Amino acid sequence: MADLAPTIIPIVILYFEVLGIFGNVNLILATIRKKHLQTKHGVLLALTSFYQLMCLLGELVNVSFALSGVEIKRNMCFILMSPYLVFSCLQSTMFLVLALDVLIAILFPLKHMVTRLGVYVSIASIPAVVYAVLILSLAIAGMISMETNPRILLCNPPLSVHPKVASFWINWNGFSNLGVLVIYVAVYAVVSSRDKRERKMGRIVMHSAERKVLISLLWLITVFASTWCTCNIILAIAAWFEQTQDVAAVQSYVVVFALMAYSVNYYVYFTKNHAYRRVFLEQLAWIFPKRFFNGIYWNETGSRVGALPSLRTPAANVASRIERRNVGNGLNSSTPRRL
Fold it and tell me: Where in the numbering of this chain does the G-protein coupled receptors family 1 profile domain appear (predicted)?
């Protein structure tokens, strides 16, 4: 198993590198280009994608050493992995921040809406920055206190730091993951409860904003649980065993789940969010102008395959209804009444 790790892992890593870098760059670019995506949740999501993009670039160091077959000493690996370690801490905490943001938006919608974007994002980013600084400080202290400097098979964050620091980092990630799942369950419960009350009052809620949030959350929970949570569970189990080449190989294979977590934001929002999907299709038209045009996908024969519904804000819908009402009143006023 340890012998296969340097051969198989780089191929898998490169595959997700391409998918992840393409997706994260597109999501960040879409947020920069379109003001309607620059909401509090949208900016936090773009920050998370930026951190994950940096993690993907940091993983290229692991690929280079795996392909070259050159072993590296732990202290040198730590120096190379330090930026990756910091961004990994930032992105993992942002999962929790994104979950809290959705919960705050549902429980305190007015306060969430009136808070300035820059202030809100700055305050929301504090936990991620504090956690990253803490882990980096502990890793530096652990590296200084180490009496030995062994050569390691592959260079990645869990193998580059002191085992005690790695254990603390993995355990904290586990508690953070649990917190995210608890918050998402709370959001699900709140939205479901509101929908039930609306139905009892005879109101239609199938197309409400909260219903759309609920559907998106179900997908986010599924993706989150099957990637990042799986990664940390396997790392926590591996930490119970004595460090051997086989254990190191397992820790290296687990990076595949982390890479999935780093890569999925773009694809989840492409499939489940119309606002993001339209912008993504516009950007795909830059690369494939014959296939994507005006939010429409065309097949090789030039036939129209599908289109997205037009994006209309609630304010635009209200204005449209008022306009139609005025037009109707104008028509009625111009029509002579019959006695």
Answer: 23-269
Tracing tokens 């795996």 back to the chain, one arrives at 66
**CA nearest to 188, candidates 167, 169, 159, 214:** 214
- pLDDT (tens digit, 9 = 90+) per residue, 181-218? 888 888 878 877 877 776 766 655 544 555 665 666 66
Cβ neighbours of 156 (radius 10 Å): 27
Q: pLDDT value at position 227? A: 84
State CA 14 to chain mean position distance. 19
The length of the chain, given as a count of residues: 339
The tokens for 60 are 């290229």
The rounded distance, in Å, linking the Cα atoms of 8 and 306 is 38
Walk me through the domains of the chain, giving residue ranges and CATH numbers: 4-290 (1.20.1070.10)
Q: Is the pTM of this model over 0.90?
A: no
Spatial distance between the Cα atoms of 44 and 10, rounded to a whole number of angstroms: 30
Q: 36 is written with which tokens?
A: 């309607």
d(CA 137, CA 131) in angstroms, rounded, equals 10
**C-beta of residue 80 within 8 angstroms of C-beta of residue 143:** no
Report the C-alpha gap between 77 and 82 in whole angstroms. 8
Q: Which segments of the chain are extended strands (E)?
A: 72-73, 151-152, 292-293, 296-298, 304-307
The answer to whether the CB of 106 falls within 8 A of the CB of 195 is no
Residue predicted with more confidence, 299 or 250: 250
Average pLDDT over residues 166-183: 83
Place of tokens 């620059």: 38
Q: From 57, 258, 244, 83, select the one nearest 170 (Cα to Cα).
A: 258
Tokens coding 297 = 């996908």
DSSP string covering 140-161:
HHHHHH-S---EESS--HHHHS
Selection from 119-128, 166-175, 277-286, 303-312 with the highest mean pLDDT: 119-128
Q: Is the dihedral of CA 307, 313, 316, 317 positive or negative?
A: positive
Q: Whole-angstrom distance between the N-terminal and C-terminal Cα of the chain?
A: 93
Tokens linked to 228: 């990042």
Number of alpha carbons in the 13 Å side-chain half-sphere of residue 230 = 17
Structure tokens at 307: 């289109």
